[in-house]
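1st attempt posting a full record on here, be nice pls
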Amino acid sequence: MRTFTKLVATETKLFLRTPIWPVLGVLLPAAVLLAVGLIPGFTKPSDVTGGYRFVDLFVPSLVVIAIAMLGLQVAPGAIAAYREQGVLRRLATTPVPPSYLLLAQLAIHAVVALAGVAVLLVAGHAAFDVPMPRHPLTFLVTLALGLVSVFALGLIAASLARTSKGAGGLAMVAYFPIMFLGGVYLPRPLLPAVIQRIGAYIPPGTQPLQDAWVGNGVQPLQFLVLALFALGGTALAVRLFRWE
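the predicted structure (as tokens):
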């Protein structure tokens, strides 16, 4: 554990040498929310959203940005770059398990993503009086499953690619659909009904997050599908991953 802790500290220092990613990961979702809140009508109740404000229902979609950007763009590229540079191969000859490096990378990016979600919640509540999740425990469990699901997809991309650019390209296959179905490009209430139904079961779980936030709780089927994505994606990523 002491070795892993030191490795995390070292990798964190290396990660912070390129401050654009931690800064974007933490601040971008909140910045988008503040910009969206300035759009006329987005802070007023609407019949289209069942009496809710657009800004209230858009916050779960912005959680997608916090998770997807790091889980499907930054983390896969960083992990594949270590393979491309031979770092994993050299590390395999030392007493330090290569898996420690992988776990350290995933932990660092996950912490930044969760920090981005926390800043988003605080900014939304302070600027627009966006309520905190009505079902906080369900929200946190759904958020954890969604994060694991998306990061597993990113790890699959890193497993299949030989280079960091290749990993980023493969991750794009999941990145854009997740962003679209999650309501990032267009608020979910404005999407066609069939697209909304499909998006309700796609990681990181925008609809379950929304239901835990302002609704009556997550529907069992949505929760089950998200859990299957998390477990199945992680298992597949572990099976496909190669150190060289």
